[in-house]
Amino acid sequence: MTVKAAISTLLVIFLFSLGYAQPCLSPEAGQSPSKALPICGLTMLNQAVEAPCNTNNIQIGFCGMYPLPNVFWYRITCYQSGSLGFFISPRYLVTQANLGDNYNWAVFDITNHNPEDVYTDPSLFMGGNWSGTYGVTGATAGPQPVECASDNAANITPYSAQPPLIQGHVYLLLVTHYTDTPSGYDLAFIGGTAVITNPNIRVLGAAITDCDGVTVSVKMNQQIKCKSVASDGSDFKLRGSNVAITSATPFNCNTDSTTDSVILKLSSPMAPGNYTLGIQAGSDGNTLLDKCDNGVTTNDSLNFSMDSQTPPTPMDSLTKAECGPKTLQLVFRKPIQCNSIATDGSDFSITGSSPVTIQSASGVCTDGKTNMILLVLGQSIPAGNYEIQLKTGSDGNTIIDACQQPTAAGSSIQFSATGGCVIEVPSGFTPNGDGRNDYLYPLNAARADNLEFRVYNRNGQLVFSARDGSKKWDGTFNGRQQDTGTYVWTLEYTDKQSGKRVFKKGSSVLIR
Questions:
Q1: Which of 475, 392, 379, 374 has the alpha carbon at shortest distance from 419?
Q2: pTM of the model
Q3: Terminal-to-terminal C-alpha distance of the chain
């Protein structure tokens, strides 16, 4: 065993005993090959802090099996063959206690493979660098494809050759943090000849016209950023008619401010016929942008028809059920008339693993129409597989859309429910105001009585406490933002189902 491999193994054991670099029992995004973060062709990616957990050991070429402390995985798609060049630059402060950061990396070709195969199939390995030299590492032209583990004093080059990528292949880049300092790193993709940014992004999937002829609902085949949609509709162009697009509104934006649907309004009704919807740069200076800020190609287009009689609105979409849900949310492509919804829920029935009753049904109505129907259930749904079926309700009809078309009885949606919701605290949060993971708090706290949640900094100082499960820590103490790092928490509560008093403790990473 090399010096570095032996030290790395001891370090993993030491960190585990401290409760920091613990096994990734429930990997977050980026912590496992299957949850690799997609690289969208960004020149620079700022990884603020590494996740404090360990995954499986992995075979690094002829070097042997190495442990993976504090790991992140990135997924790369090659759009034009060439070499992959990048640099990993630690953002550390040199002190007597910390002489620097040491990052190791490896690249794997997972084309036509399960991402988790990287742990069991050594042939997927393409190259990497496990040199013990602190500081910047990466893939450059010239050196060997792989450098094995070594000690910092050996001064082995931290650079390896650029792996060759093949068009259409999918790769994983592994970055692991050997030293235990949460300073983070910058990942810059420069110097290579391969194209890893999609040069021809197309998002238009389908267009559905409303019966009034002035509304077109556009369904995308991937998520786009809501803020990239010009409100005047200028991102879109309509061919086959003199009718103009007057506005565009993102529909049902997600918590990460993305959507797969846009509602277009026209200056006047379209006549029955065939049309083409295209993409162009809007008044905001860009076309639609995908989740990675890549612009949709102006060659993107789709054909659709305005029929003299529109087909009924299908019942085909259900918001993902929470664990043990007491409500279900049906989503429809076209508006449903609110007065066609039987308020006692008798338009719907649920069959499956356990008996489920429906107490009521209602819409979120504007001008008498809704794109969503909320079903209130008589009890939480136990874990299992279920089916919602549409039927004729107590009002004598099924649901009816804005075009007076009834959705056929017998329409159904299958779904799964997860029971036994666990009260737990996330392993990390990012209080940066982007609307995602901005707070630290116990999940599913509604299932607890007499709850006490406390958070401590690394000096043992209490920085947050709550006796109400709805209260959340925003990463501040006495009005000041707290530093990036690991915070210890304790959680006490009485389980409503068992009546037992429960005590838990753990740690979460604050990432800025």
A1: 379
A2: 0.50
A3: 37
